[in-house]
Design goal:
By secondary structure, this protein is an alpha/beta fold. The chain has 2 domains: about 70 residues, no CATH class; about 180 residues, Rossmann fold (3-Layer(aba) Sandwich), CATH 3.40.50.150. About 30% of the residues lie in helices and about 25% in strands. It is globular.
Amino acid sequence: MQVTSYSLDSLAVGYNSRDGGCFDTIGIAGAMKLRIYFKHIREKCPYTFFLFILLNTLLTGCESQVIATPTSTTFKVEKMEYVRAREQLVEDSIERQGLHDEDVINALRNVPRHLFVPEDMVSKAYEDRPLPIGYGQTISQPSLVAWMTELLELEPGDKVLEIGTGSGYQAAILAELGYVDVYSIEIVPELSQRASKILRQLGYGNVQVKQADGYYGWEEYAPFDAIIVTAAPDHLPAPLAEQLVEGGRIVIPIGPPGFYQTLWKFVKEEGELVAYNMGSVMFVPFTGSGVSEGEEHRPTP
C-alpha cells in the first residue's frame, strides 16, 4: 500500500457554526483559520488527528492531494485543484470587477461552484463565465455574481430577496456572508428542487427557496432590505419596488431578451426609487406570466 504524507497545507476542514457546530463543506478554502484549527487538533488531540488522517487515506485511495471535510451527515472529500481554482477565480474577479468587500471575496473563495453545475460542466466550473444548467437557464459568471452582491451593500440582519434561484449559487454566495437571511424564488420546479437540495446539503440554514413566479416577489416576508434579480425583464416589476424598505436596494438587469441589457441599481429614497446605471450585462430572459401582464414601476432617473 502506498503511504501518503499529509501537511497542514494539504488538508483543511470546514467548521460550520451556523448549524449548531456541525462540520460541512462551507469555508473549505479559509486558509489560515483552517490551518490553525488543524494545528490545534494535532497538538491537543493527536489520536483524533491520526484517526482523521487514516479515514481520509482510506476514502481517497492515496491517489491525490485532497481536502477532507466532515459534514453533519457524511464525510466529503474535495480535490485540492478546486481550492486552487477558486483562489485563481478570486484573483481574476478582483481584477476584472474591482471587488473590494472582503466578506464577498471570502464567499467567492469558499463556495464550491462545481457542486452547482451539471456533471458535464464540472471541469469548467471555475472559469469566469456563465454555464448552462438546463431548462434554458444558466449559472451566472462568478465575478458578476460577486459584483452584484457587493452592489447590494448588505448589513448584518438584512433580509435579501433573490428572484431566479437557478442553480442556487447566487443564494449560496449571499448565505455564505453569514449575517443575512435569504429568500429565493425560482419559477422552474426542477431547478427549485435541485437548488434547495444542494443548499440544504451544504448547511445553508439561512436560505429559504420556493417555486413561484418571482415577478410578484414574496409578500409573506416583505419588506426586504435588498432585492437581487438574476434574469432580465423589460421593466422593473412594481411588486418588487413595493416590497423594498426605505433605503433598500434593488440590483436588476433590464432590457430586451437576446440582447445586452443594462444593470440597474435602485435605491429607495423618500418613497421613490433613484436609478443608477451600472453598465451593460447579458442575462437570460425573465419568464412567467407576471412580466408580460404586470405594470411597470418607473424609477427616478
